C-alpha cells in the first residue's frame, strides 16, 4: 500500500524553492524588524535560524544592529570572521553562518558612528562579505527606521519582512510607524510574531492592531523562562519539546515563503 505523508511533513523536509533575490548565492532574504527596541528581534532571528537549519536549509544571520550587536551571544558564538583577499567570511557555528560587528570589534571598544557612517559601513560590509550559498539570509534589524534600516531596504529589497512585537500598546504604536514605511516601499510582510505572548493581558489592542493593519500572526513565542538563566538560545532549544516548537515555526514560515510567486 502506498504510504501517505501528511502535508506538514512534506513541507518540513528540505525542498527546492525559487530564488527570490538578485543577490549572488542567496535564495531568500528574511528581514526581522520591529519599531520598538527590546521586543525580541534578535531572539526571533536566532530562533528562526535554528528552525530553518533544522528543516534542512542553509542559513546565514546578519546582525545589523551596529550600535548594540548581540546576536552572537544568543547563538553562543565567539570567533572572529576570517578576511581573505579583502573578502569577509562569516563565522560558521553549528551550520549557521553569522556576521556581526561584535565579532570584529572588542566588547570594550565603544562604537561611535553617526547615521551616515553606519550606512556607509553597511554598504562596505555588503560589498565585502562572502556568504557562500544560502537558502535564507536572516537580517536581525536594529530598532527603529533609521539609516541602517533604510539602506538595508534599498540594498536587499527583502521579499519577506517579519514584524516582531509584543502585544503592549507602546510596541504596537512603534510597529505602526515601521509598517507605514514598509507599505510605502511595498515590502511584503509575511506576518507578525507575537513575542512574550502570554505575559500581556490586553488582547483587544493587539487584535485591533491586526485588524487595522490587515495582518495575521505568523506564530507566537511565550515567555521563555530559561532566558533568565542563560542568554544562549541554542541551549534553550535543546529539549525535545523545544525542538518540536522549532519544527512548527519552520513549517509556518516555509508555508508563506513557498506561496510567494
Ligand atoms: N520570549 C521571550 N521570553 C523571555 N525573554 C525574552 C523573550 N524574547 C526576548 N526576551 C529577552 O528580552 C530582551 C530583549 O530581547 P532581544 O534582544 O531579542 O530584543 P531586540 O528587539 O533584538 O532588542 P534591540 O532592539 O535592542 O535589538 C533580551 O534580554 C531577551 O533575552
Ligand atoms: Mg536586537
Automatic annotation (TrEMBL):
Superkingdom of source: Bacteria
Subunit structure: Homodimer.
Keyword DNA-binding tagged: no
A Pfam family of this chain: ParA
Family membership noted in the UniProt record: Belongs to the Mrp/NBP35 ATP-binding proteins family.
GO molecular function: 4 iron, 4 sulfur cluster binding; ATP binding; ATP hydrolysis activity; ATP-dependent FeS chaperone activity; metal ion binding
Binding of ATP, residues: 35-42
Xref: InterPro entries: Mrp-like_CS, Mrp/NBP35_ATP-bd, NUBPL-like, P-loop_NTPase, YlxH/NBP35
GO terms classed as biological process: iron-sulfur cluster assembly
PANTHER family named among the record's database cross-references: IRON-SULFUR PROTEIN NUBPL
Protein name, per record: Iron-sulfur cluster carrier protein
Keyword Cytoplasm listed: no
Keywords carried by this UniProt record: ATP-binding, Hydrolase, Iron, Iron-sulfur, Metal-binding, Nucleotide-binding
Function per UniProt: Binds and transfers iron-sulfur (Fe-S) clusters to target apoproteins. Can hydrolyze ATP.
Amino acid at each position: 500500500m502506498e504510504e501517505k505523508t501528511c502535508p506538514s511533513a512534506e513541507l518540513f523536509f528540505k525542498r527546492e524553492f525559487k530564488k527570490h533575490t538578485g543577490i549572488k548565492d542567496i535564495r531568500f532574504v528574511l528581514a526581522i524588524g520591529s519599531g520598538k527596541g527590546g521586543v525580541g528581534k534578535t531572539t526571533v532571528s536566532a530562533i528562526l535560524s535554528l528552525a530553518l537549519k533544522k528543516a534542512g536549509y542553509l542559513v546565514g544571520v546578519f546582525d545589523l544592529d551596529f550600535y548594540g550587536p548581540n546576536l552572537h551571544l544568543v547563538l553562543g558564538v565567539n570567533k572572529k570572521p576570517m578576511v581573505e583577499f579583502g573578502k569577509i567570511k562569516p563565522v560558521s557555528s553549528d551550520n549557521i553562518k553569522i556576521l556581526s560587528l561584535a565579532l570584529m570589534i572588542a566588547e570594550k571598544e565603544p562604537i561611535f558612528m553617526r547615521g551616515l557612517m553606519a550606512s556607509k559601513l553597511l554598504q562596505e560590509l555588503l560589498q565585502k562579505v562572502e556568504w557562500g550559498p544560502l537558502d535564507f539570509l536572516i537580517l536581525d534589524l536594529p530598532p527603529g527606521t533609521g539609516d541602517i534600516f533604510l539602506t538595508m531596504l534599498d540594498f536587499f529589497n527583502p521579499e519577506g519582512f517579519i514584524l516582531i512585537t509584543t502585544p503592549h500598546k507602546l510596541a504596537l504604536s512603534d510597529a505602526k510607524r515601521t509598517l507605514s514605511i514598509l507599505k510605502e516601499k511595498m515590502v511584503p510582510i509575511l506576518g507578525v510574531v507575537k513575542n512574550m505572548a502570554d505575559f500581556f493581558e490586553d488582547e483587544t489592542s493587539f487584535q485591533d492592531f491586526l485588524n487595522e493593519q490587515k495582518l495575521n500572526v505568523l506564530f507566537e513565542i511565550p515567555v521563555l523562562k530559561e532566558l533568565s538563566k542563560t542568554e544562549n538560545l541554542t541551549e534553550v532549544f535543546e529539549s525535545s519539546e523545544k525542538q518540536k516548537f522549532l519544527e512548527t515555526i519552520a513549517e509556518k514560515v516555509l508555508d508563506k515563503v513557498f506561496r510567494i510567486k
